[in-house]
What does this fold into?
Amino acid sequence: MLIAGNWKMYKTASETVEFCAALRDAELGDVDVVVCPPYTSLHHAVALLAGTSVAVFAQSVHWGFDGAFTGEVSAAMLSELGVTGALVAHSERRQLFAETDETAAMRVEGALDGGLSVIACVGETEAERESGETETVLRRQVEALRAVVDEDHLDRLAVAYEPVWAIGTGRTATPEQADEAHALIKGLLDVPVLYGGSVKPDNAGELLGKQNVDGALVGGASLELDSFLEICRAAFLS
It folds into this structure.
C-alpha cells in the first residue's frame, strides 16, 4: 500500500523542516509513504527524511536531460538532490498549465529513463463523467503512457486515478466508482493504482479497502501531520 502526500504550492522551507522532523519520528507501519514538497523544499525534505522509509518526490519533472527549458527541472537535477521520484500530469497541471497526454507521456518516459520512480495521474472531468466518457478518457490517457514505458521500468511506475471533479472540491468518488476505474486501468497497465480525489481520514479506510485500490494520492489532508498519519494508519489496516 502506497500513500503519497502532494503538498502542491504549500509549505515554505521552514514549514517543511517542521513537518518532516515530526514525520521522521512517526510510526508508519508497513506502508510505503511518499511526500511531494515544492521544489524549494525538496533539499530540506531529503535531508530530514534520510535514513527513513519515507521517499521524497517532486511534483513534476521535465523529459529532457538538460536544455533551454526555462522553469523546468530534469530527472538528473532531482536525483542529485536525493529525490527518488516525481508526480507527472496531476490534474492541475493538465487544467492550468496545458499538460497533454503527449507531454505527460514524455515526462514519464524521461523520468523513468533518468532513474526516477513516477506516479502518473489520469482522470476524467465532471463533464466527461456525466456524458459517459470516463472509460474512453481513461483508456486514452493510460494507453499514452503504456506506449512509452519500457517493461523493465514498470516496477518504478504507479498510476493515480484522479476524478477531476473530486480534486479540491470535497466530493469523493464512491468506493465502487474508484474500484471500477482502477480495475479498468489495471487491465491496461499492470502497475499499482492509487486513488486521488479528496481523500481524508474519514473516507480513507473504505476507499483503501477496495480490491483494486493500492493506495492514495492525498492533497489537502497531507498538509497536516495528524490527518496524514491517520490515512497512513488506515492503509496499514486495509
User: Anything to note?
Assistant: The mean pLDDT is 95. The chain has ten helices and eight strands. The beta strands are 2-6, 32-36, 54-58, 85-88, 117-122, 157-161, 193-195, 215-218. The longest helix spans residues 175-188.
